[in-house]
Specification:
The chain is mainly α and about 50 residues long. Helix content is about 75%, strand content about 0%. The radius of gyration is 11 Å and the shape is globular.
Amino acid sequence: MKRSKELVEKRKDFVIDYVRRNQDKQMKVIVNELMEMLFLSERTIYNIILQP
């Protein structure tokens, strides 16, 4: 099942914004919080963060 482009963009925006708002935390903690909130894998979250 393909995800709509709009949903993928919203997810990306949310992840990037969350990382910026929580810069004082370690990246591992941020990723774990995002994994719990969004039910995504660690790899998926890192891929979202590292996308240009």
